[in-house]
């Protein structure tokens, strides 16, 4: 306390003193001494403190005002546009190697990051912010403290998370809180991080603390988002619940029935657009906590806002996002093109100016980067940050429910051109967890640095964030289902199926039909066709739903192409997945191999009877 009293001015000190938590005090004193900021501001939950942060983002030039009131733009360095997987490391004692996880010796990592951060805030202002993950004062609540010298990061967190200062006061010494320490490091004239060669994101799983330095991109810096996610996965596996890379949404069934679904998709594979279907209701678009209560699974959104991809948002396909982005509510646009105070982005369905400012600085059509690549108007991973309360389709009651909502179905989806049908249902929890969740593969996208379009193993769409050995994670999933009297139904979707000539087999909005079908299946309202890989919809049900939902015809031919069981591709996939689990993952539950074996057997039997490509009509008649 005495140390803090020396480090803070009276007003700020009083704010910290009101929280009775010596562990927090010591953490703050240690880091403020180490970072050496010129100034410290402590954010309480007051609107004035939030406004101060918002103003500071403008004052320090990390954000600029746009024409529409409450809209700002922020830029990250041209080479700091996505999550940096290579430099994001899990600090574990002894640097134990864990397959698929990027680990580093804890002592060495802590030493390195501390050295990088020593005195890094000289001349800067440090913001100390308090938030919570999950709804406040609920079983889901996890308090977190964020230290950052980026007003943009703090501002983003005010939009995306529930305020937590009062929660820290309420919990006092009982708070089991996460800690995040971030510095954007030295900034260039555009106020973007300069020393990208020293960009590091180190996750200390022992101290439940994450350090992030020399970066600004949200996925690397916003503590409560993907940084906290590594910590919550660890807690969930230890405590027997699920912390998932999933949206949470309400699908509206017949007669006002409300059914909640979660959905796990790798970044840029349709997760946000599914959760945003305008006649359904969104609860969350990225992270969900799922806990067992009285034999049912209940879910809550970890966040209260959206850090969404803006590329491709257009008035026709995304009417709600479009409307929100064009209303005067608080929004941070990042890495978009700006001309005369207006934001523009790739594929927005209208003409874009041929010059302006974007993530590369002054921009003109045809401009090339150092590598000789033409720079598009906005970055592929350009984003918007906005609170969910501004969405007309938000389910506010579900968002704030302290006990979450009962989950009827869980969806897994990837970017897969030739293997999975557009939608199918698992036989049971175990079958779904193994053949859909744990077997998820997807082509890589621009959401991370690196090559795009490569098929990659991505179980539960969570691999980028995995913080425990994969075998343990899957074991926890399997056991979770056993705690439930009524487990959610598990489904898999694939919006990216193509024919042999590479043409898409589905339209963007077809997913709205799959959702309605899944809703009916959760309640047993329609029959389905049993295939070797699970249940698929009957043509008549889909034809009716296409008519009702999209007012569209749906031909038997389209259905047949989309739902043909592609045995060679499915068998090849099982081979790939089995090999990964046998050769690269340790301590895999034996059940995983059993379930894959059974699926393989069913496929081989079907092939003997019906051939390599099996029409759904053939399976229906059998
Ligand atoms: C994702 O890439 O999955 C996102 C954005 O949701 S980020 O914050 O970068 O993780
Ligand atoms: Mn995500």
Automatic annotation (TrEMBL):
Start and end residues of each Phosphoenolpyruvate carboxykinase GTP-utilising N-terminal domain: 26-236
Keyword Manganese tagged: yes
Catalytic activity: oxaloacetate + GTP = phosphoenolpyruvate + GDP + CO2
Active site per database record: 269
Chain segments carrying region Disordered: 356-379
Pathway: Carbohydrate biosynthesis; gluconeogenesis
Stretches assigned to the Phosphoenolpyruvate carboxykinase C-terminal P-loop domain: 241-602
Binding site for GTP: 268-273, 383, 415
Swiss-Prot/TrEMBL cofactor(s): Mn(2+)
Localization in the cell: Cytoplasm
E.C. no: 4.1.1.32
Binding site for Mn(2+): 226, 245, 286
Cofactor note: Binds 1 Mn(2+) ion per subunit.
Skewed-composition ranges (Basic and acidic residues): 356-373
Entries under SUPFAM superfamilies matching the protein: PEP carboxykinase N-terminal domain, PEP carboxykinase-like
Keyword Nucleotide-binding belongs to the record: yes
UniProt entry keywords in alphabetical sequence: Cytoplasm, Decarboxylase, Gluconeogenesis, GTP-binding, Kinase, Lyase, Manganese, Metal-binding, Nucleotide-binding, Pyruvate, Transferase
Gene Ontology annotations of biological process type: cellular response to glucose stimulus; gluconeogenesis; glycerol biosynthetic process from pyruvate; oxaloacetate metabolic process; propionate catabolic process; response to lipid; response to starvation
Similarity-based family: Belongs to the phosphoenolpyruvate carboxykinase [GTP] family.
Biological function: Catalyzes the conversion of oxaloacetate (OAA) to phosphoenolpyruvate (PEP), the rate-limiting step in the metabolic pathway that produces glucose from lactate and other precursors derived from the citric acid cycle.
HAMAP family: PEPCK_GTP
Protein name (Swiss-Prot/TrEMBL): Phosphoenolpyruvate carboxykinase [GTP]
């Amino acid at each position: 306390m005495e140390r803090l009293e020396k480090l803070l001015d009276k007003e700020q000190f009083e704010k910290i003193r009101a929280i009775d938590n010596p562990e927090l005090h010591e953490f703050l004193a240690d880091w403020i001494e180490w970072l050496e900021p010129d100034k410290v501001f402590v954010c309480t939950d007051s609107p004035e403190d939030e406004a101060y942060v918002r103003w500071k983002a403008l004052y320090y030039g990390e954000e600029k005002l746009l024409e529409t009131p409450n809209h700002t733009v922020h830029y990250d360095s041209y080479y700091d546009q996505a999550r940096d997987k290579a430099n994001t490391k899990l600090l574990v004692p002894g640097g134990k190697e864990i397959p698929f996880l990027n680990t580093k010796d804890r002592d060495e990592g802590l030493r390195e990051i501390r050295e990088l951060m020593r005195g890094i805030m000289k001349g800067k202002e440090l913001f100390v912010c308090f938030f919570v993950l999950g709804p406040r004062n609920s079983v889901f609540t996890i308090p977190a403290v964020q230290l950052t010298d980026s007003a943009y990061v703090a501002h983003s967190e005010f939009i995306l998370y529930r305020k937590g200062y009062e929660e820290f006061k309420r919990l006092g010494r009982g708070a089991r809180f996460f800690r995040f320490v971030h510095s954007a490091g030295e900034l260039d004239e555009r106020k973007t991080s300069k020393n990208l060669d020293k960009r590091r994101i180190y996750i200390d799983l022992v101290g439940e603390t994450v350090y992030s330095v020399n970066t600004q991109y949200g996925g690397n810096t916003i503590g409560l988002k993907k940084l906290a996610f590594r910590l919550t996965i660890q807690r969930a596996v230890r405590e027997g619940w699920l912390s998932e890379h999933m949206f949470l949404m309400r699908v509206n069934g017949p007669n006002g029935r409300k059914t909640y679904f979660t959905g796990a998709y790798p970044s840029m594979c349709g997760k946000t657009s599914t959760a945003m279907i305008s006649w359904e209701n969104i609860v969350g678009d990225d992270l969900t906590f799922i806990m067992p209560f009285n034999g049912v699974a209940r879910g809550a959104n970890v966040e209260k806002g959206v850090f969404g991809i803006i590329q491709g948002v257009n008035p026709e396909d995304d009417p709600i996002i479009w409307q929100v982005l064009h209303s005067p509510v608080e929004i941070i646009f990042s890495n978009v093109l700006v001309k005369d105070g207006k934001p523009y982005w790739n594929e927005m369905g209208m003409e874009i100016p041929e010059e302006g400012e974007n993530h590369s600085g002054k921009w003109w059509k045809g401009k090339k980067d150092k590598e000789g690549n033409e720079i598009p108007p906005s970055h592929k991973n350009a984003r918007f940050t906005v609170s969910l309360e501004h969405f007309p389709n938000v389910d506010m009651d579900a968002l704030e429910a302290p006990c979450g909502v009962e989950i009827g179905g869980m969806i897994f989806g990837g970017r897969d051109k030739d293997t999975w049908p557009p939608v199918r249902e698992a036989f049971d929890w175990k079958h779904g967890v193994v053949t859909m969740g744990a077997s998820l593969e997807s082509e890589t996208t621009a959401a991370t640095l690196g090559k795009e379009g490569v098929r990659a193993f991505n179980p539960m769409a969570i691999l980028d964030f995995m913080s425990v050995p994969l075998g343990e994670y899957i074991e926890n999933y399997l056991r979770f289902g056993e705690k439930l009297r009524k487990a959610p139904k598990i489904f898999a979707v694939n919006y990216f199926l193509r024919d042999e000539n590479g043409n898409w087999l589905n339209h963007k909005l077809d997913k709205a039909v799959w959702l309605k079908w899944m809703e009916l299946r959760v309640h047993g309202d329609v029959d389905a066709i049993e295939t070797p890989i699970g249940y698929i919809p009957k043509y008549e049900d889909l034809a009716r739903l296409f008519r009702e939902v999209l007012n569209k015809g749906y031909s038997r031919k389209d259905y047949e192409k989309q739902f043909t069981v592609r045995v060679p591709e499915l068998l090849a996939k099982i081979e790939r997945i089995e090999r990964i689990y046998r050769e690269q993952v340790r301590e895999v539950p034996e059940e995983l191999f059993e379930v894959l074996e059974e699926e393989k057997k069913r496929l081989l039997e079907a092939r003997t009877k019906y051939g390599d490509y099996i029409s759904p009509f053939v399976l229906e008649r059998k």
